[in-house]
Amino acid sequence: MKILTSWLRAYLPSLSVSDRQLADDLTLRGIAVEGVHDLGEGNGHLFEMDITTNRVDAMNHYGIAREAATIYNLPLTSLDETLPATVAGAKAFPVRIEAPEFCGRFTARVLRNVTIAPSTGRIAEYFGLLGQKQISNAVDASNFVLMGMGHPTHAFDLDKIEGGIVVRLARKGEKLRLLDGTERTLETDDLVVADEKKALALAGVMGGWDSMITHETKNILVEAAWFDPASIRRSSRRHMLHTDASHRFERGADFNAAPVANALVSRLILESGGQVEGGLVDVVIPAAAAKTADRAPIALSVKQVQRHLGTTIAPEGITKEIVARYLAALGCELTATSEDAFAAKLPSWRLDLEREIDLIEEVARVYGYNGFANTLPTPGIVIAHPVAAAEAAVSERLLALGFSESISSTFASRADSDLFGAPGKGTVAMENPLSEEAALLRPSLVPGMLTMLAHNLNRDVPTVRLFEQGAIFTSGTDEVVESASLSLGLTGAVAATSLHAAADAPVFELKGVIESLLLLFAGGEVAFTADAPVWLQAGRSATALLNGEPIAQFGELSASETARRKLRQPVYLAQIDLDKLYAIPLRQVTAREISRFQAVERDFSFTFPDSMQWQTIAAAIRALGIPELQKLAPTEIFRDAKGKSVPPDYYAILLKCVFQSNERTLREDELTTWWSDIIAALTKLGGTIRAPGL
Hints:
Helix content: 25-40%
Largest sheet: 7 strands, mixed
Shape: elongated
Number of helices: 20
Radius of gyration: 36 Å
Strand content: 25-35%
Distance between the termini: 84 Å
């Protein structure tokens, strides 16, 4: 952004510091001057400035002059809104807002018998120094006010308006030719300024061709309004139009600036001739005013300011008088509520101020961070976060299992939130979203995981193992609920094993990873059910239960979602509730002496119906209470498609049991007894023995 120091000094006639000193002081206060260019004798300098997106109030000469006035404790010249005498009109010009959620304020003023001519005086001088193109006095007046005090305005040819002004949403397929000569097809969520028959402008973005000011224009309607930032951002992105007006409106314009800007533009146009007809038409939506200009005051304690900011180099420190002076100069209206506290009514142009700490930061910024003493923090007792050890254990285990840690966006789209969010829990919408794809705080880590997996696949990385620990957000009755979650994602070929075919191996790999993580904690019984959310493929997904409560969901992404996201190969996902898991203490690792006695292995081959789960088989064997049973694991599972060796709807399983004592060598009669007990237990479950143990 380009700023003229001569223009700044017009608002600050008592400013005595040099332009270069001004640039340094502004930069130290966060209003960054990145370049200073000499414009020659008597013209001052041109500042190249980098203004952060939250400081839309400083994206103009008057806003920066306000900052300088605060720094140097100087008076700031008021903007001159006086107009020539008004000619009475037959009736007030009609203005109707039909989309009050998107347009909170609309002002209109009628100017009659104007003269359209080239700009002269201050406008021509400043525009020449800035390299700004001049068009006509009416159009230049709007641009001059935008650069001067920061609020967008627009001038319509009044004689081309049929009826009154209607601020409404566009009709599906409605056409509008803009000032750049392009014709746009509008959508139903595009906000337009229209008359009774047609759209006149894409609100907050660009005016229309059919109502533009020409040299034949005699009567003008000057408009200044306040539009909802999200609405302007949506239309600007859709039509790929980034204008000076949309840049301001998208970031939150000043609600109270519309009447002022209207008066300033009208005053400049009337310098070439003409008169005002009737008074200012000012339509205000109270709900929009309450969210912007009429926000509730913030309680501010001077002691809190001093506590947060600490010791200054100057011996007097941050006093109550300094706090009051800085904040009042920045536009806050302060009311003393006690000896050292204020109620601060926030200025309408500073929507970035929301909490007490924001005001404290403003005091520190204006005072200058270089004015604080360098001090070391007071040493205190370091207390580890309650779940730090658990987080580290989970990360270490996943890294050991071949997964890489990743970080995804904290935001999600409405569609992803509806699909992957927890049923029955509300979502958290952003007040000023960056885009439609980042409109809500994420209710699940899965959308971000899918994005990262797709990113790798689209760059020819076919085998991926990722995990992310992070916060997810849901909406309760009166608060935002933040909870910890873990997402796993894998894709790529997994080799077949004696237990699982290659197509099924990734699902069981995820199952094994979840079991491994649960073993880190001193939890209870782990079980699995076939229930799964809709975004997972039925029959290839499951829910893990810990002590009967759902703790994780995992499986293959549904075919419909895989196709919609255009994924090149199957993707497997898991989502784990870390809040429930971290409520359980970590399992304490214990070491014991390795047995000096020989271990004995026994294999058992049984046939079971498909309905019989491994956890039931394992539980039946462990219920026998054989203390010498050190290991129990399936080593092979197979089915016979022809039904010869294994009946249809049955599977054969080979079990390996390892027996070992820490005190003695096992006897044959003991092994025979345990062998018989295991066979009896499995037979009772409905299993059929296929071969004797070896």
